[in-house]
């Protein structure tokens, strides 16, 4: 069988692109970790200097009058670390009082700062520290060279293996080898990512571990300098006061420090090089005959936790690259090169189904919106004017406005999409959304961000309704059902892959870059829609049915429908949008977690949905027994009660448990909810079916829009813990009320569905 090279080349290019992206993100994580540890070493000097300055200020000595003591402290810190080029002190108005070393004005890149606070907690001044850029640039260049030198042959080898695998698998009879391409992708891409992560571990051992030890040594040198100063004033070593308390405060402040102790010098003197492995011996005084030694022991557990966190980061990035690879492979297999029929019998198989045409387009487009999940609340908080009233509510508005436009625009955008044609509607919507994300990238004010989000919401709604309409337009009910399942999988896959990437881009390159990446994804979706989707409209498509007056009122009175909507559907969307999209990233950002970490945490919910929705779809079902209400109630209880661990034990661990339980509960209830709504629509006997489904989607979208607004208002009035408890109670109470309604229906058979 003659084999076309184009699909094999595309397959190998896909592997190379995913591996290169994984290596690039791993390199970025290593560089950020190195910079963070290096700058935390210099922050020790800032801490020591600031502590002395604020102590003097608490005794009534202003910064203007501390030139003697504070100037000496600046000189001492510079002498302790050769990489410190200069330090300076400013007053509250930014006027420089005095400096030591090379500290030009304005402060150049590579300058750190720490604010000095008075007794009332108000800014009294600022200490600046400039370090040698070579301390960062030289090791960073070495890490880049090492990482790229290792990744390049891995990427090239994996691409070659992918080419050979595609040639071998494609040569099977009737193209059946194409079904084994995902397995080949997983093996080759997974193996390449493993090799890259193993090399990243070697770089960590070689560069980050010594840097952590250097930081601990800097802590010890600072303590030794204070003891040296006391000895120089004539205070005997055995009469020093407060030394144990000072050492204990160092241990509390610096978790890298396991032990610091003062011990007498041995008779033969102190040999720093002869110290046991993992310990530092610093002679006191630093110059001259040693009378004592300062023993400093790094906490290897803290260093290991930092390294494990970094390895977890690289593992998550590799997982994301693998998942994106699967989605892009699915997209490639729908191209004409992959779907070329081998004979007349395969002509029908060579035509892409409508859902397959739109799946890749929707995945790429939905990633654009999901990119901003980790950083949008914190970005909005930074853009708010200082002292703005009702700040938490204002922070929620960019999400609320977006969700509200999506909710209210479903019907008009669906009609517009139908008149334009689904492909043209999707392309126009992608262009509008891309322009909106581009405006978000350059928004430098709160109002500008709000307007840009509103514009991107219009494009998002048009894309969503066009893609959904492209599937629903098909005449075959089985094709529609399968198509909607593909539709949901594409959305969940985007929600799983995009947040870690968005957090990574925002953390390393800024939020503007992340929004520009979203705009680029919209442009890619536009091009894919033009290439993949059919421009022809299905023959015999019926015109939109006009809603009769009072139809929605009659629909609202269907027995059991209100209980399902208000007790389960609305609380499910409220808790998802309010907590997962708004409160969780805001709380984690306030606690100091990186945007990359927030993005990884936000993967938990869609991951549980992807894994558990198929698992729970048929669970508990048996002939003659309707398990759907029980699954809906149980899912609501799991999701609602999962909030309370965060209320009583706030922290990253309980937030992760909550997101896991939220995903578990909603995976259990989402399929029965949709099935119940379809049953209500069926029992309308054609009179209310469209209204039932339309009302369901409208109420769901309304809950998504109201959730962040309610959370923002409650956060400003009550605080984080009561706000979390409020949404937990709403979800739990809604499930219990729905369960009570189902229990009552056993005594009122006329209200039950048969």
The profile of the biggest β sheet is: 4 strands, antiparallel
The order of strands across the largest sheet is 2-1-4-3
Using the CA coordinates, give the radius of gyration. 31 Å
Mean pLDDT: 81
**Under the CATH scheme, which class of the domain at 556-754?**
Mainly Alpha
How does the overall form come out from the CA principal axes? globular
H/I helix tally:
25
Indicate the structural class: alpha+beta
pLDDT < 50 runs, ≥5 residues: 171-175, 341-351, 750-754
Q: What proportion strand?
A: 5-15%
CATH topology of the domain at 556-754: Growth Hormone, Chain: A
State the helicity in percent bands: over 70%
The name of the CATH architecture of the domain at 556-754 is Up-down Bundle
Amino- and carboxy-terminal Cα gap: 56 Å
Would you report the number of β strands? 7
């Amino acid at each position: 069988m003659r084999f076309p090279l184009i699909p094999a080349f595309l397959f190998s290019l896909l592997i190379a692109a995913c591996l290169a992206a994984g290596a690039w993100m791993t390199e970025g994580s290593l560089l950020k970790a190195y910079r963070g540890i290096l700058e935390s070493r210099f922050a020790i000097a800032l801490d020591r200097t600031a502590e002395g300055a604020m102590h003097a200020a608490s005794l009534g000595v202003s910064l203007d009058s501390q030139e003697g003591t504070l100037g000496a402290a600046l000189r001492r810190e510079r002498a302790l670390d050769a990489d410190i080029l200069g330090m300076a002190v400013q007053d509250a108005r930014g006027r420089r009082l005095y400096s030591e070393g090379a500290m030009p004005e304005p402060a150049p890149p590579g300058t750190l700062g720490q604010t000095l606070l008075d007794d009332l907690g108000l800014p009294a001044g600022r200490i600046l520290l400039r370090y040698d850029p070579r301390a960062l640039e030289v090791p960073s260049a070495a890490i880049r060279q090492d990482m790229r030198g290792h990744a390049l042959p891995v990427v090239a080898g994996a691409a070659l293996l992918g080419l050979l695998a595609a040639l071998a698998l494609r040569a099977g009879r009737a193209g059946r080898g194409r079904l084994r391409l995902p397995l080949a992708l997983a093996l080759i891409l997974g193996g390449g990512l493993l090799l890259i992560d193993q090399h990243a571990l070697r770089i960590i051992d070689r560069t980050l571990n010594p840097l952590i030890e250097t930081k601990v040594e800097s802590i010890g040198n600072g303590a030794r300098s204070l003891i040296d100063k006391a000895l120089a004033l004539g205070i005997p070593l055995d009469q020093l006061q407060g030394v144990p308390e000072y050492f204990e405060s160092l241990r509390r402040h610096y978790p890298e420090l396991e032990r610091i102790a003062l011990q007498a010098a041995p008779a033969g003197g102190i040999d720093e090089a002869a110290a046991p492995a993992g310990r530092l011996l610093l002679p006191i005084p630093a110059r001259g005959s040693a009378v004592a030694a300062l023993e400093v022991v790094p906490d290897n557990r803290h260093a290991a936790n930092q390294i494990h966190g970094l390895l977890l980061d690289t593992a998550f990035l590799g997982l994301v690259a693998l998942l994106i690879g699967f989605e892009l492979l699915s997209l490639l297999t729908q191209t004409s090169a992959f779907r070329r029929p081998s004979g007349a019998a395969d002509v029908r198989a060579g035509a892409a189904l409508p859902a397959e045409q739109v799946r890749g387009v929707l995945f790429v487009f939905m990633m654009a919106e999901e990119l901003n999940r980790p950083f949008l609340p914190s970005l909005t908080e930074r853009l708010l004017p200082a002292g703005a009233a009702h700040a938490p509510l204002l922070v929620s508005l960019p999400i609320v406005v977006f969700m509200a436009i999506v909710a209210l625009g479903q019907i008009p955008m669906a009609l517009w999409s139908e008149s334009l044609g689904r492909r043209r509607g999707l392309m126009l919507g992608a262009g509008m959304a891309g322009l909106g994300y581009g405006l978000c990238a350059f928004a430098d004010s709160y109002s500008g961000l709000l307007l840009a989000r509103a514009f991107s919401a219009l494009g998002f709604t048009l894309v969503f309704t066009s893609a959904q309409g492209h599937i629903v337009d098909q005449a075959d009910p089985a094709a529609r059902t399968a198509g909607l399942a593909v539709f949901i999988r594409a959305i969940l896959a985007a929600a799983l892959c995009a947040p870690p990437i968005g957090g990574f881009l925002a953390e390393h390159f800024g939020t503007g870059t992340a929004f520009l990446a979203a705009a680029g994804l919209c442009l890619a979706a536009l091009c894919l829609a033009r290439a993949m989707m059919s421009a022809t409209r299905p023959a015999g498509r019926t015109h939109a049915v006009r809603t009769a007056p009072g139809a929605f009122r009659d629909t609202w009175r269907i027995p059991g429908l209100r209980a399902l909507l208000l007790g389960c559907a609305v609380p499910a969307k409220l808790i998802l949008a309010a907590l997962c999209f708004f409160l969780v990233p805001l709380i984690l950002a306030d606690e100091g977690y990186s945007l990359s970490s927030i993005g990884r945490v936000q993967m938990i919910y869609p991951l549980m949905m992807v894994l558990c929705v198929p698992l729970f779809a048929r669970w508990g079902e048996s002939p003659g027994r309707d398990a759907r209400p029980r699954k809906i109630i149980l899912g609501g209880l799991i999701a609602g009660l999962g909030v309370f661990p965060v209320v009583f034990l706030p922290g990253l661990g309980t937030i992760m448990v909550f997101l896991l339980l939220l995903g578990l509960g909603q995976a259990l209830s989402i399929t029965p909810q949709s099935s119940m709504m379809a049953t209500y629509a069926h029992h309308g006997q054609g009179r209310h079916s469209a209204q039932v489904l339309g009302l369901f989607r409208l109420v769901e979208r309304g809950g998504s829009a109201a959730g962040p607004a309610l959370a923002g208002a409650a956060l400003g009035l009550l605080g984080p813990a009561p706000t979390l408890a409020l949404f937990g109670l709403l979800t739990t109470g809604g499930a219990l009320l729905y369960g009570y309604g189902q229990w009552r229906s056993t005594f009122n058979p006329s209200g039950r569905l048969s």
